[in-house]
Specification:
217 residues, alpha/beta, Rossmann fold, 7-stranded mixed sheet, 8 helices, globular
Length: 217
């Protein structure tokens, strides 16, 4: 039985890279350049350039599994520390004080109460206590309706070169010349494929994808 998956804020598909099995993936990414890159790496997936937040609301009933990674900068400890530091960096426009983007919690609560399948919401560990209790792994928060277990990971190479990030995450972006986003940022935002694979397999291990349940939808 084919499992229908919705991959929101898909980026170039780090979380999806090592998924396998009888799956049908719809990826939603608002940046056209990044969406084109995702489509090149995963030609079998359906890629939609759209607002992922609205797409979730409009289409959640069509899927068995949803992975969503809402934008993280306004929740980030690193950005908060930079914005409040007593130095010139704090005055840079990139670190101006901002309200936390509450779409993150809108999606967590929405999926928890409205979605009948299995879901994962991924984000950075925030600078404030989480408003909804998450699971924690690989220095990230994950909100899910199944146990994601644990996975030991090494350096995420955040401060490495583009080449080092490419080697770590298994994506060669050498032929792409992005004009709307930095290549190192695209790779930095990319979920580590091993993390995505581990969580997806934990969903199966915990028998959350029972064919009888999917067939009765």
């Amino acid at each position: 039985m084919t499992i229908k998956i919705l991959n929101l804020y898909a980026g170039i598909g780090g979380n999806r890279k090592l998924w396998d099995g009888d799956i049908e993936v719809t990826a939603v990414e608002y940046n056209e350049e990044i969406a084109k890159c995702y489509q090149d790496f995963f030609p079998q997936d359906k890629v939609i350039v759209a607002d992922a937040h609205q797409y979730l609301l409009d289409h959640f009933k069509e899927f068995d599994f949803i992975w969503t990674s809402p934008p993280c900068p306004t929740h980030s400890r690193v950005r908060y520390m930079a914005s409040t530091a007593n130095n010139e960096q704090a005055n840079h426009p990139s670190f101006a004080a901002k309200f936390p983007d509450m779409k993150l919690y809108e999606e967590i609560i929405f999926l928890q109460y409205y979605f009948k399948g299995n879901y994962v919401v991924e984000n950075v560990i925030g600078y404030y206590p989480p408003l909804v209790k998450p699971q924690e792994m690989a220095n990230h928060y994950f909100w899910s309706n199944f146990n994601i277990g644990n996975l030991k990971t090494g350096s995420r190479c955040h401060n490495g070169t583009v080449e080092e990030k490419q080697d770590l995450k298994g994506f060669d972006l050498s032929k792409y010349a992005f004009t709307t986003v930095r290549k190192d940022q695209v790779l930095r935002n990319c979920v580590e494929p091993k993390t995505g694979k581990h969580i997806f397999e934990m969903c199966y291990k915990n028998k959350q994808f029972l064919l009888s349940e999917i067939e009765t939808k």
